[in-house]
Write a structure and sequence with these properties.
Largest sheet of chain B: 6 strands, mixed
Helix content of chain B: under 10%
Largest sheet of chain A: 7 strands, mixed
Radius of gyration of chain B: 14 Å
Radius of gyration of chain A: 13 Å
Number of helices of chain B: 0
Shape of chain B: globular
Distance between the termini of chain A: 36 Å
Structural class of chain B: mainly beta
Strand content of chain A: over 45%
Oligomer: heterodimer
Number of helices of chain A: 0
Structural class of chain A: mainly beta
Order of helices and strands of chain B: EEEEEEEEEEEE
Number of strands of chain A: 11
Strand content of chain B: over 45%
Distance between the termini of chain B: 41 Å
Chain lengths: ~110, ~110
């Protein structure tokens, strides 16, 4: 069990640029989740996958955000035309059963 | 709508003292309840969870939590804190019915005095 990994750990970008984050879940975990955490707040749910199917998307996930999990293993979260308000920690979690989610270290995005 | 309230943004206790972090939830059915801890620059680590059964739940690192349905509370406790317990603690509620979404509180930052 190597844990959930996320890459990159930090990303600094200029407003208007596109960014992509990657999440590698614990192997054999069929559920994968993305959350966003802003300063002073708890994580907020963005979206989740069961295998390769994206089953739910939060209203927080605007049209500029897209997530994929093409083979039911790793996932990517892309933000197009980044805005300063997108600055946050993006957390990925995975689980085998619904009751326990294991979180990765997160990707901290700073939009200048 | 589901929600979680952690009324204390910051709590400071002396090392060796007891700790209680408060959590109240709002949920229409039987909730699934969690406590997570987040150290600076780290992801979230699950301390304990409650699904059903015994309302006093034991977790890792000497933490425990008690589910009180009548008070809609799930407070976290530790009899004697260590300096390494300084971190941010999040209470969370989940449904595990229609979706696997977890709703988090805003967190309580714990400071430990030497």
């Amino acid at each position: 069990d190597t844990g959930v990994s996320q890459d990159p750990r930090h990303k600094i970008t200029k407003r208007g640029q596109n960014v992509t984050f990657r999440c590698d879940p614990i192997s054999e975990h069929n559920r994968l989740y993305w959350y966003r955490q802003t300063l002073g707040q708890g994580p907020e749910f963005l979206t989740y996958f069961q295998n390769e199917a994206q089953l739910e998307k939060s209203r927080l996930l605007s049209d500029r955000f897209s997530a994929e999990r093409p083979k039911g293993s790793f996932s990517t979260l892309e933000i197009q035309r980044t805005e300063q308000g997108d600055s946050a920690m993006y957390l990925c979690a995975s689980s085998l059963v619904p009751d326990t989610q294991y979180f990765g270290p997160g990707t901290r995005l700073t939009v200048l | 709508a589901q929600s979680v309230t952690q009324p204390d943004i910051h709590i400071t206790v002396s090392e060796g003292a007891s700790l209680e972090l408060r959590c109240n939830y709002s949920y229409g059915a039987t909730p699934y309840l969690f406590w997570y801890v987040q150290s600076p620059g780290q992801g979230l680590q699950l301390l304990l969870k409650y699904f059903s059964g015994d309302t006093l739940v034991q977790g890792i690192k000497g933490f425990e939590a008690e589910f009180k349905r009548s008070q809609s509370s799930f407070n976290l406790r530790k009899p004697s804190v260590h300096w390494s317990d300084a971190a941010e603690y999040f209470c969370a509620v989940g449904s595990m019915n229609r979706d696997d979404k977890i709703i988090f509180g805003k967190g309580t930052r714990l400071h430990i005095l030497p």
